[in-house]
Each structure stands twice: as structure tokens, then as C-alpha cells.
Design goal:
CATH architecture of one domain: 3-Layer(aba) Sandwich
Helix content: 25-40%
Order of helices and strands: EHEEEHEHEHEHEHHHHHEEH
CATH topology of one domain: Rossmann fold
Distance between the termini: 22 Å
CATH superfamily of one domain: Vaccinia Virus protein VP39
Number of helices: 11
Strand content: 15-25%
């Protein structure tokens, strides 16, 4: 099976959304975590599933350049110790069609289920594709804070799932602050699974807490209600546009196992150097 660095990236004529340059950092971290997770859990679980919400088209084009990069679904399909099952959910019809074609070209023998539609509305369909007794790694990669906590709750209550979630706190929540804090706005209510956050935010402002930090802490507290070990804030990897000193999002892992956090610690330690992803499976 080809690894991700051997895959050709010539234009295949399928849809290829433009993405920011920082997307490479995101995909590198997610890919490394997927590699360590799948290899590390191979001997401990008889079945492992990779679930991705907001899967995209499988490829992206760096905005302002001609450079093509692999998306996280295709990277996950080519990890050293492949998952037993893959489930990809994507709302955009053309993106899902392109992802399916690319996936089948790269790994035609892989067990892959494709769930069309908004993941918040297709939770039952997603769960049908995940075998009971399977350990699942779920990567959620929304463009904004549209992932509803109720979706996470439904998945977590029905299956054994670790979540790696992009928290779009800078690129969405902070940018749309004035709209989201209105009394009749429910975007953050749905994101946190709580309607009482405004009370705590009013108190936090007296301590000069940044809105993005407040939301990160609140989200971790919400995950703790599902018995996920609250991760330290410093492990919620912040991705920034350095030249603009702009924080875009935090990439955060949530698990009920200390082992998963050890993997994530290795990702944070080695994810920005030049080591091969596959060399790190022996760590």
C-alpha cells in the first residue's frame, strides 16, 4: 500500500477546494495522531474505526498557489497499520463524490462507508456504520463552530470514541462575537450544549479572560460531563497565522484514556519536525 508521500498529486480533474497554507500543519498533526492511534491500539482492540466529520474532498489546493495537498481522509487511509473501518461524512455532494473516487483509487480494498449530509442531522446513519465493540477515532473538522455538542453526546453514548476536534474559536467565534453573544443567538448554546454559559462569561470578563480561552475551557468542561478526561489547555494546539499574529483555531483531543493523551503528547512534540510519521510508531 502506498504511503502518503508516494501518492501522486497531479490534477485529477475532480473538485479541489482552496485552503489556507496553515491546513498543512493541521493535516500533519491529524495524520500523525491517526498513525500512532491505529498502530498503538492494534494489539489492544480487535477492531478500529476511523470516523471523519466534515470530510471534504480528500484534496486541497493551497490558496494563491498551484500546490495540491492530501486531505486527512486520504492520509488516514494510508497509515502504516490501517483501520478496519472508515466512515466519512460530508455535506457537499461534489466533495463527497470526489472523496469516494479518490479513496477507491488509492485503497480499493479498504472498508469505507460514505454518509452524505450534515453530520448533526445524520448521527443515526453514522452510528449504523460503526460496529459495536470497535474503538473509534473521530476527527471533526468544521469551518466554524457548527458542530453541535448533542452530536458528540450521541456518538459518545453509543460507541467507544476518542475525539480530535478543530475548535474554530478564532476564525469563527471571536470574529462573530457580537452576533453570537446576543440573547436570541443559539450558536454557542448548541456548540457547548449549554444555555447558561452567558452567566459564566459575564463573570469571566471581570477577570479579563479572552473569549476564545473561555470557550475552550467551557468546551472541555462539557466533554467532562461525558466522562472525558479534561485536557490541559496547553495541549489544545493553537494554529496561527504568524505574519498576522492571528490565532485561527485550537486542535484538541478528548479521550477517556491516558494512553490517547500520551499519543497526543508525542504528536505535539514531534509534529513540527522532519521525522517520518512512520518512524514515530515505535515511540
Amino acid at each position: 500500500m502506498p504511503n502518503e508521500e508516494e501518492l501522486p498529486l497531479a490534477d485529477d480533474g475532480l473538485t479541489c477546494p482552496e485552503v489556507g497554507a496553515w491546513t498543512e500543519t493541521k493535516h500533519r498533526l491529524v495524520s500523525l495522531n491517526s498513525t500512532l492511534f491505529s498502530s498503538g491500539m492494534k494489539a489492544k482492540w480487535s477492531h478500529r474505526t476511523y470516523l471523519e466529520l466534515y470530510s471534504g474532498a480528500g484534496r486541497g489546493k493551497i490558496r494563491g498557489t498551484s500546490k495540491l495537498i492530501l486531505g486527512s481522509p486520504l492520509r488516514a487511509l494510508t497509515v502504516k497499520d490501517t483501520f478496519d473501518m472508515y466512515v466519512f461524512c460530508e455535506e457537499d455532494v461534489e466533495n463527497l463524490k470526489a472523496l469516494k473516487t479518490r479513496s477507491q483509487e488509492i485503497t480499493p480494498s479498504a472498508s469505507v462507508a460514505y454518509v452524505p449530509g450534515d453530520c448533526n442531522l445524520r448521527t443515526s446513519e453514522i452510528l449504523k456504520e460503526i460496529p459495536r465493540g470497535s474503538l473509534t477515532l473521530c476527527f471533526a473538522d468544521p469551518f466554524d463552530i457548527s458542530l453541535r455538542f448533542e452530536t458528540i453526546r450521541s456518538l459518545a453514548h453509543s460507541r467507544s470514541i476518542d475525539f480530535l476536534i478543530l475548535l474554530a474559536l478564532g476564525m469563527d467565534a471571536n470574529r462573530n462575537y457580537k452576533h453570537y453573544v446576543k440573547d436570541d443567538a443559539d450558536k454557542i448554546d448548541n456548540f457547548l450544549g449549554s444555555e447558561s454559559w452567558r452567566v459564566r462569561w459575564a463573570s469571566a470578563q471581570w477577570d479579563a479572560v479572552k473569549f476564545t480561552r473561555f470557550l475552550a475551557d467551557e468546551f472541555a468542561k462539557s466533554m467532562a460531563t461525558l466522562k472525558y478526561i479534561p485536557p490541559p489547555r496547553y495541549t489544545m494546539k493553537e494554529v496561527r497565522i504568524e505574519e498576522r499574529n492571528l490565532a485561527l483555531y485550537r486542535l484538541a483531543l478528548f479521550s477517556k484514556s491516558d494512553v490517547a493523551y500520551k499519543f497526543w503528547g508525542q504528536v505535539l512534540k514531534y509534529g513540527t519536525d522532519q521525522k517520518s510519521l512512520f518512524d514515530l510508531t515505535c515511540l
